[in-house]
Structure formats: C-alpha cells, structure tokens
Amino acid sequence: MSFLQPAGPVIDLGVNIDHIATVRNARGTAYPDPIRAALLAEQAGADLITLHLREDRRHIKDADVIALRPQLATRMNLEAAVTAEMIDFACQVKPQDVCLVPERREEVTTEGGLDVIRYYKEVESAVRQLKGEGIRVSLFIDAAEDQIEAAHAVGATVIELHTGRYAEAEGEEAVREIERIKAGVHAGASRGLRVNAGHGLHYTNVQPIAAIADIHELNIGHAIVAHALFAGWENAVREMKAIMVAARLGVSYGAGA
Length: 257
Description:
The chain has helices at 18-27, 34-43, 62-68, 84-93, 120-132, 145-153, 164-168, 171-190, 207-210, 222-231, 233-249; strands at 12-16, 48-52, 76-80, 97-100, 136-141, 158-162, 194-198, 215-220. By secondary structure, the protein is an alpha/beta fold. It has an 8-stranded parallel barrel, surrounded by 7 helices. Helix 6 (145-153) packs parallel to helix 8. The longest helix has 20 residues, at 171-190. It is globular and about 45 Å long.
C-alpha cells in the first residue's frame, strides 16, 4: 500500500469545477462539460466535488447542479450565498453538504470569510432550514476565534477556513498566517467542529496547510484547472491529492505547477 493509495482517510480533496464552467460559458458552448469533469475527477481520486452557484450564474448554472447531484459517487459540496433563493434551491437539490459563503456581484472570486457575527440571525435561519432537510452545513469563515464561536453557536457542524491571506503572503508573513490558521483549526476542533480549509491553494503552497492534522478537507479549483491545461485533468487531480496526502504523512513529494 503506497501513500498514493492510503488504507483509510488521510485528508480529503474537494475538486471545485467552477472554472470548467467558466471556460464553457466564455463561448456559450456546451463544452467543456463540468459534469464530465466532476465524474473524471472522482475517478482520479477526488473525495468530493465542490461547486458554487453564484447569484449572477457566471459559471455554474442551476441545470449543472441538478444534473450532477444524482450522478456523483462521492458527495456534492454546494457553495451558496445566504439568500432565500439559494437556500431554497439547496433544499430542493439536497446536496450532502452546503457551504455558506459571502458573495458580492463585483468580486472576481470570494474575497473573505462570511461575517457570521454581523449576519447572525440570517445565518442561523439558513443553517436551521438546511439541517431540517438533512444537509450538513459548513460556514466559510476567517480563522478568527469570535467567528468560529459564532459558527458553533448558530448550529453549523463544519467550518471552512479561508486561506486566501496565507496564499497571498510571503516570507515571515506567510509563517504568521500559518500560525493563525493553526490557531483557528484548534479553536474549531476544540468546539467539536469539523474543520476544512480552502482558497488560493495551489501545488507549491498547499503542503503546510495539508500538514495540519485536524484539517479534514481542502477545496481547490482554479489551480487544478490551470495545471490541467498542461498535465491533463485527471493527472492534475491525482497530483494534487498525492501532494496533500504526502504532506499529511510527512513524505516528500515533488510539486508540479
């Protein structure tokens, strides 16, 4: 048994297929097909498929979510804003997981964590509605103890820590960001929360995050789609999963992007 195929769960990779849909939508074609990408990613070792149905539908469409849900062999992690439209849609589709995220129309990508404290009542209501449909709820938040405590208080059972600041940092600042994320992981785990992480992670910065023992799952999309242009989609998925598992196990593995 090699570290590439461990006997049990080590760390999960959620492959985000949003930017497959971005390429498709750029020319208004039916290809590349994000559903095919999702199924191939599963075959290549993805533990779940993540997709963000944005309010402006700039990449993933409603039909993508509906068509993909029954075809997945793993699980669907649907990212959605805290709006009545999105929560009702999620309750209709019933993915295994819903990750509530902040969303602004003018942003290129999600710019920070959800402010659970500021929007406490709205988030609490969304969590209650989703849990009532048997959906596990995650909150995409910054690694701040007050936000983690609020996430726990509203009834979420999972948090996904925003790693964007770490991904943009260099040198000593990156070291400080790792320590901040570690503290957030500890704060979440000590409250009984499942702790995931993601945003801005790629083939040469993912290792320190993947090595944090209490992180269960990393969600990565743009880097895998970009690397797939040169390495092929399934190879890009396999390589990311191998790098993550190696980092968790303390095994050296070459990076490729």
